[in-house]
Design brief:
two-stranded antiparallel sheet; Cytochrome Bc1 Complex, Chain D, domain 2; mainly alpha; disordered C terminus; binds heme C; 2 strands; about 400 residues; globular
Amino acid sequence: MIRGAAAALLALAASVAAALDFDPAERAAILSHGPWPPAPTADTSNRVAGHAAAIALGARLFFDGRLSADGRVSCASCHDPARHFQDGRATAVGRAVGTRNTPSVIDSGGQRWYGWDGASDSLWAASLRAMMQPGEMGGTPATAAALVRGDPTVREAYRATFGAPGADDERVQVDLAKALAAWLTTRVSPRTAFDDFRDAMERGDEAAAARYPEAAQRGLRLFVGEARCNTCHAGPRFSNGEFADIGLPFFLPGGGVDPGRHAGLRALKGNPFNRLGRFADDGGAGAVATRHVQAEHRNFGEFKVPTLRGLAHTAPYMHHGRLPALDDVLRHYNLIDEERLHADGARLLRPLGLSAAQLADLRAFLLSLSEPLPSQATPGAPHVGAKGGPGGGASPSGPAR
Ligand code: HEC
Ligand code: HEC
């Protein structure tokens, strides 16, 4: 009898599960976070972007420690595919312990700025930065050229992508970074419960939309509404690609400060590998932003707005990795110290003062932006939504010119 009543109640609960009644403004905001995966974008500064041979070479190089000074540190040492392409540490450990958290490099294609401070203006320049950074891999043009000239397999893959290596070692190293960027662009994170909900909403499929947990829906409503998270965490990647100061301390543990975007802009301007330099394959045509952007006082303490996709796998959080768990992040936004914010951030951020139940809803929503890590552990395993892959790119497409 009791069991029958419980079953009836359960059936009733299931039949009334529904999508919340989102108003037109909320619907528009929600739809703007998709579709996923996004259409691939072209990087005109990288002549081998999208080329099968380059993608195959990049897939190999990503796991190759020989790009580093001591032969032991590969890109994957920090950007581990089994961990959503990051390392789970507060700050990176390569040849030395760094001061910044390793960001995931899945979904890294198509951004305007790279690095927490935006010191790179292309995916290949960011890849090169890591390769050369003394504390990370400490590679040099000579290290890269020795790998290409010394290993017949790499040499052949290089030749299939770029033609015969010339005498300019620096160019060879930049080419390897471009192959890495070509491969990284094919790494796209899987669709999530949120994406299914968003698409169901778009096609007006109430039944499918109702499968998305109500707590996540309530959290989503907060995200695009009262909490205004989407002013910065915008679009399909949940990042507007820009920089903001969210009131985190920028003092470094050993003394000194991390000035963030302010120093990043100066590094960008002086970087011979930026999109205005001789290695940009579009002759600087795509460098409008790089040419015009200027360091201003307000950039001090600004860091790049990170994606929120895959969040469940990328703790600890923030540029310095000092917030161990998602609840710490939510507490930060809920109690934010306005004294700490520069003028620009203050306009967007204020203490949210959300209740415990609301924070739980926001958390449920944020976690719905991650999927379990199924096939990502195996390099070369096909990714949902990934266009081409190291496997698919195995056939050389001939010299790319
Ligand atoms: C020692 C750990 C370590 C290694 C090894 C490493 N990285 Fe990184 N990577 C980082 C850290 C830390 C950052 C953030 C740097 C910053 O903000 O200054 C980063 C940032 C990046 C970014 C920018 C991501 C974004 O969205 O802004 C890309 C791309 C990248 N790395 C690619 C690579 C590639 C390709 C390799 C191999 C050539 C590599 N990394 C090797 C730690 C590492
Ligand atoms: C003013 C722009 C802005 C707003 C509004 C904003 N964020 Fe952020 N968010 C950022 C920036 C910038 C960072 C990185 C800061 C840093 O590392 O110094 C960040 C970091 C995060 C992170 C850590 C991600 C990671 O990989 O380390 C999470 C989670 C997050 N925000 C969630 C939210 C939520 C939830 C809201 C709404 C309550 C929100 N953000 C509102 C700009 C913003």
